[in-house]
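1st attempt posting a full record on here, be nice pls
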Amino acid sequence: MATLELVKKTVAKVTHSNESDINPETLLKDIKADSLDWVQIMVGIENVLDIEIDTEKMKEMTSIGDLVKYLDDFKK
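the predicted structure (as C-alpha cells):
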C-alpha cells in the first residue's frame, strides 16, 4: 500500500471522514481530530509500517504531504 493511501485510510477511519477529502495539501490543523485521535492515527500508522514516529517531528509537520514525506524518508 502506498504511504499516502495508508495515511488517508488511517485518518479517515479515525476521524470518520471520507478518504477522498484527504490529499497531500490537506493541512493537519484542518483535520477534525483531537489529541486522542492523533494518537490513534499515529499508532495505526506505526503498527502497519512497524516504525515509531518521532512526536517532536510530528509537531513540525503542517500537511498530510509532510507526514507522507516523513514516512517515506523513514522507510528508506
